[in-house]
Amino acid sequence: MRRLAALALFALTAASAWAGSPPPWVKAAIPATMPEWTKKASAVVLLDETQLIVAGAGEIATRHRRVVRVQTNAGRDHAYASVYFDNDTKLKYLRGWSIDAKGNEYEVKERDAVETAAASEGELFSDARAKVLRIPGGDPGTTFAYEYERRERPYLLQSMWYFQEDIPVLQAKLQLQLPPNWTFDARWANFKPVESANAAWDLRDIPAIEYERGMPSYSTLAGRMGLVFIPAANDIGGSAQRSWNDLAGWYGKLAATRLAPTPEIQAKVKELKSIRALARFAQKDVRYVAIEIGIGGYQPHAAGDVFRNRYGDCKDKATLLKTMLQEIGIDSHYVLVNTTRGAVDPQLPMLASFNHVILAIAAPEKTHATIDHAKLGKLVLFDPTSTTTPFGYLPSYLQDSRGLLVTKEGGELIALAPHAPDANQLRRKATFALDEKGTLTGQVEEVRTGRIASEMRFELQGMNGTDRLRYIESIIGNHLPNSSPSAIAIENLDDAETDLVIKYAITAKNYAKSVADMLLVRPRVLGQKPEAIVDLSERKFGYVTEGPSLQTDDVEIAVARSFAVDELPPPVALSTPTVEYAAVSEFKDGVLRYKRKYALNTFFVPLEKLPEMNKVFTRILADERASAVFK
Amino acid sequence: MLQRLSAAAAVALFFAAVNVHAGYPKTQEFRLPTAEEKAMTGVDSAPGAHAAILDWVRIDDDTASYSSEYKRIKVFSEEGKKYGDIELTYMPGFPTYGRISHIDARTIRPDGTIVPFEGKIYEKVVVKVGRQALKAKTFSLPDVQPGSIIEYRFTRHWSDAMLFNTTWSVQHEIPLVRAKLALKPYDSRGEYASFFTFLGLPPGKKPVMVEKRFELDLENVAPYVEEAYAPPEQLLKAYVNFYYTSSRLGAAEFWKAEPKNISKRIEDFLGKAGDAKAAAQKLAGADPHATAKNIYAHVQTFRNYSFELEKTEQEMKKESIASARSVNDVLKKSAGTSEEINRAFVAIARAAGLKADAIRVAPRDTFFFSDKLADGEQMSGEIAVVSIGESLLFLDPGTPHAPFGTLAWEKTNVPGIRVSKGTDPVWVMTPQSAPETSVTKRAADLRIDGETLTGKVVVTYTGQNALSRRLRVLADDDAERTKDFEDEAKRWFADGATVKLASLTGAKTFDEPLVATYDVTLPNLVSAAGSRTVVPISVFATNGRNPFAPTTRTHPIYFPYPNTEEDEVRLTVPETLKVSAVPPPSNLNAGSLGYSSEATSDANSVTLKRKMFVNVMLIDAKNYNPLRNFYSAVLTADQKPLVLVNK
After folding, report:
1. What is the ipTM of this complex?
2. Do residue B529 and residue A7 have CB atoms under 8 angstroms apart?
């Protein structure tokens, strides 16, 4: 809830607004009664209509109209019209209307909009901007509407239609107008294809993709349609990017002019020599700075500029590394990817599928990130942007996904397989002593590799020294509330090529719980493995895990001689396709030993396997709570 | 910000400005690193810092509407390379006409070689509304690596028709090694006076006037550290603020005069309150207390604009929302802002014969009142007080659903100016609420069903605990409110808990407790110890975390308001099991914080009673360890389980 005090600032945005009646198409979209199946939704799209008008020279005019009914207070978020544009895109008009629950009508125009830079995180500069129009009204029962026209000359004759949302859509319409003798390809993802009638589509009653904990990305679930416009033979070259091969060919040509080595680059290559050293240079010594203007959103800067500045974005880093590798006779290939798993759908050869560039390097060695290509042989996938992911690994957000391999001949869509669990390890070894007062003291060493190391490095590197210690102390405190960690040492934090090692000492008072004549000791001491117990009551989608990993605990607790063991937790052995778990406690020679092994084998657990996952995680949680009894 | 009136002065200053722009002073010249600077890998005061500002030289000249700034930053780590990206914001449009110019920058590599900045400076629109825009000049320095030193400088100009206050934020996210800061104030020849205030400077440091300008030299200012349970950031981050006022009053004089100004504004508003008499007649109660409560209940029904979602100008016009000019305006519409409703209460109470006053207060949610700062905006809140006999009844009618006698927490324990009819206004302190008035009482009636606990939970909130939740869900509809309460309750229990809100009462009132009743299923609590069944019976503390787990602390610890937590958990034991051991009682006394728990059992059930209270607002950082130990001990006590064995 925001107070009215903020109103003064906002009043600026609407200072020139004047009331006008919404046009007939807005009122026509409002049904007499809302359909029963939409009653629980916070808002409902009554109409989302797009007209794509393609001119012979390749200019595309997009006219968009949208009408949304707010049904709950949360639905107020839909009272905004956001339109993106840049130096090459003209916004012809933008206007909005609303009819509130009391029947009051409002109108706002483009001059009432707030313009903001649309740069994403890490971008120093982009010409992308957005106009955001706040439409008055907002109480449940209000109907919002807006329309705009945008004209652009896209680099590729493609367009994506996103018609399924996180709220229900009663009607989604798309109408395509092409110049004479042009044709089009329509491809569908996550939705049963619908035949067009005169290049027009009219979809009704599209259900919402509602949020669920751990659900796959919306890209994986929401229906969308990709359109490729195919010019007549005598129009603008008559070419179109209809396939992955076409798309890769286009990108290869776009980037090819940026790969010229400079003497300075050649000198550096002579100094560094090896693939790994060059990869590390591009990853670490070239700072991530994105400057994207016009085609610069896709075309890399020249390798020489990137080298001289020692900064660039993902495609710049890939370009410099590719140029350097050329100098030592190593072939490499751009791979266009998306950092959201599932965003690249094999059915949609669209440029909009991608937001990131990595390299596939023709290196003979076998690594976790090596793929065997039928023609190109062994290729190591490498992300020069992820400073915490070493050569031979792929960032977890790119695994179990797809990428467009750009080759000299064109290209193809390839699978980016998940790494095996043993590529991502957390090995914890702890040696403690438990005294007669129940105080636990000892040393812990945690070794992290692969994804687990990368993610921890990312967290810790962003913190200063004090915050790092406090962060680790907080994690320990979650398991041992009455503990005082000390001598915290972090090894190899900045060297992603090596294991990340964290060592610390612990003194935990009252660790052993004294109840009546018993002393309860939890052998596990530290760490929780299960990610989530998922509520299955209305679950529609599968669950996305943190990714495959192999984690072990090896704990020894030397127990004060005055205590005799009475009972130990039973051993646990679980094996499912998703999770494998084995834990055993034993007491011998005054030492309580706890060993366990946890392997998570997949990035994705389908809906039908979730009951099994919950059951296994519940069993593991029970083992983690279990106590040994001493008397 | 004040607009200048003297055109003649502006013309004269233009020529002065021309001279200034000829070049940077010596203190802002680029220089080669010393051997010591080259060898630096960190600073002692901030271990693990990613970078440090070696030099910051800023010269503000309000006589020339001009400022020049120089920064020299040493990069220590990969993360510190981000300081090579520079963004300088300015407002180019009317009336500021700001601009940034004369940008120079360079990188000094770790080996001492220089890489001049020859790249492009981009100009981006940060935000634009109509003709008003906030723009930024942005650029990135080349070849920034750990060990590099980056230097940059620029000048900032603005319209010489404008006079701005200046703030030097001297505490950054990285340590500051040296700073030379100067400001030449505008001389309005008596029209305006300039003052400064400051917070958090090293002992003995403050700006000093040297040859018509204020100067401040600083060394080794530690970076700002964010911590949970810390006072508002504005209160912790060191700064110097220069300001101009149209009077020649210093802060001390200002705060002597301001109460009369406030009193006049409030009494003027209360003056036109003829309609209050009729309302007072209808609301008369059996005694003054009852009358006050009736009036309070009446104004609580008013529409409160201050707590509604923001509205556009069009919406305000359509709904005829405008600032009230008097109490009569508020009463006619039965609507107003928070302070207008507060004054309506005072007016009706006075008309009913009660001795009622308004108190203008300085809320402490974002800042603590400072009498060193001559800023009347600090007094942005308002409450009412009714004298009944010898006692004072503090009320907050302008806060929706505030219990009768409860002030919103940010208005408690703060200075205020009491405005009484016919007498001079006086400074007062508002009362702090007592921990026993803000209680969260959680009662669970559970049974063991295999490895799961199931049953009913009733949670009763009073005082601040009720008010804060009522305000949190004020704009929510039923579904959102249900989700909000269920989500809060789920956070108490282990993952996998099923929590369904069965009923919620008292969310839209002020005179009843807020009561939430849940049906719960709690898996992942019961565990085995061999053949024994172990139940952590303090079920509401299942997910308890020590908020003070870190072993070190920089800032004081700030609890917004005293409060109490009372739990009662009754667990029915299955017929197949019997109680082997109940958790031993615990009693922890840390002075202003306390905790107790005690379990009792009978033939077929166990009951745990747990209580914890906080009766303090600020704890000095030097007392952090005892506080940390207290919370650790609480968690340890909460984890002591109930043990059941087979019959």
Report:
1. 0.90
2. no
Interface test with A, best of B145, B312, B551, B586 (most A CBs within 10 A): B312
From the list B421, B278, B295, B280, the residue with the least C-alpha distance to B355 is B421
Q: How far is A560 from chain B (nearest CA, A)?
A: 19
Task: Tell me the DSSP string of A323-339.
Answer: HHHHHTT--EEEEEE-S
Position A592 pLDDT exceeds 60: yes
Of B78, B306, B315, the CB nearest to A461: B78
Q: How do residues B307-363 score in pLDDT, each as one tens digit?
A: 998 888 888 888 888 889 999 999 999 999 999 999 999 999 999 999 999 999 999
Task: Calculate the alpha carbon distances from B292 to B329, B348, B405, B526 in Å.
Answer: 21, 9, 10, 52
What is the share, in percent, of chain B residues with pLDDT greater than 70? 96
pLDDT for B247: 65
Cβ of A76 within 8 Å of Cβ of B306? The answer is: no
Of B408, B164, B214, the closest CA to residue B307 belongs to B408
- Bridge partners of B511? none
Q: What is the structure's pLDDT at B192?
A: 76
Closest residue, chain A, to B142 (C-alpha): A309
Residue of B nearest to A388 (CA): B78
- Nearest CB partner across the interface for B130, out of A12, A485, A516: A12
DSSP E strand stretches across B141-249? 149-157, 162-163, 166-169, 176-184, 193-199, 208-210, 213-221, 239-245
pLDDT, tens digit (0-9, with 9 covering 90-100), for A352-404: 999 999 999 999 889 999 999 999 999 999 999 999 999 999 999 999 999 99
Band of pLDDT at residue B10, cut at 50, 70 and 90:
very low
User: Does the pLDDT value for residue A407 go beyond 90?
Assistant: yes
The helix-helix angle for B288-300 and B275-283 (nearest 10°) equals 120
* Residue for token pair 């667990």: B571
Nearest residue on chain A to B129, alpha-carbon basis: A114
Q: Do the Cβ atoms of A403 and A335 come closer than 8 Å?
A: yes
The answer, yes or no, to whether residue A289 has pLDDT greater than 50, is yes
CB contact under 8 A, A464 and B46: yes
Strand order in the sheet with A549-559: A483-491, A500-508, A440-448, A425-434, A549-559, A591-600, A579-588, A572-575
Residue B84 · residue B99 · CB < 8 Å: no
Q: Which residue of A has its CA nearest to B545?
A: A478
Please tell me whether the overall predicted TM-score, pTM, comes out greater than 0.80 for this model: yes
Instruction: Give contacts of A486 with chain B, Cβ < 8 Å.
Output: 551
The letter for the amino acid at A281 is F
Q: Do strands B593-601 and B605-614 pair parallel, antiparallel, or not at all (unpaired)?
A: antiparallel
